[in-house]
């Protein structure tokens, strides 16, 4: 098992070549092919590949420029597509309708207690009641009439649903 304190030294021993020669989902290319215009030659390539036919320096430079221009155009196109896809996914979850005054909501507050697994700790608190809407994305909420009010962004709120009366009964 690797010690995390030694990670910077460990990563310098081989992980960069693995990273640079792996195809990335967002670009559809390897970082090496984007930067250098060719794939990295790995030790295994010495065994399995035949040597490439040599070409003149001028031809090599001309072909390299063409490859890089084509690769960069493809990557820009793929990145636009991926950006649109990510925006669509974000918009599906984005809370654009907002909340009404008096509506009950959950508040996302991921405070962590040392020594406990973060997965076993509660991240959502509530229910809170929306007291006022300060603007399109900022709300003043309160847990109960005696509690201090909190001002929070809409991204930290989600609608509260009352538990079903038979929930938890077997």
UniProtKB/TrEMBL annotation:
Organism name: Exocentrus adspersus
A UniProt-annotated Pfam family: Integrase_p58_C
Name listed for the protein in its UniProt record: Integrase p58-like C-terminal domain-containing protein
Limits of the Integrase p58-like C-terminal domain: 126-159
PANTHER family (UniProt xref): INTEGRASE CATALYTIC DOMAIN-CONTAINING PROTEIN, PROTEIN CBG26694
């Amino acid at each position: 098992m690797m010690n995390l304190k030694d990670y910077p030294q460990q990563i310098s021993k081989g992980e960069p070549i693995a990273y640079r020669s792996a195809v990335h989902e967002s670009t559809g290319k390897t970082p090496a092919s984007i930067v250098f215009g060719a794939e990295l030659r790995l030790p295994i390539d010495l065994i399995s590949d035949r040597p490439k036919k040599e070409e003149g320096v001028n031809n090599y430079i001309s072909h390299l420029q063409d490859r890089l221009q084509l690769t960069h155009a493809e990557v820009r196109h793929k990145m636009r597509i991926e950006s649109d896809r990510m925006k669509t996914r974000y918009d599906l979850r984005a809370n654009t309708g907002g909340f009404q005054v008096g509506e009950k909501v959950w508040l996302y507050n991921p405070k962590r207690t040392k020594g406990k697994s973060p997965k076993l700790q509660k991240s959502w608190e509530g229910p809170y009641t929306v007291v006022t809407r300060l603007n399109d994305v900022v709300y003043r909420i309160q847990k109960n009439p005696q509690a201090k009010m909190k001002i929070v962004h809409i991204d930290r709120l989600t609608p509260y649903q009352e538990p079903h009366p038979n929930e938890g009964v077997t």
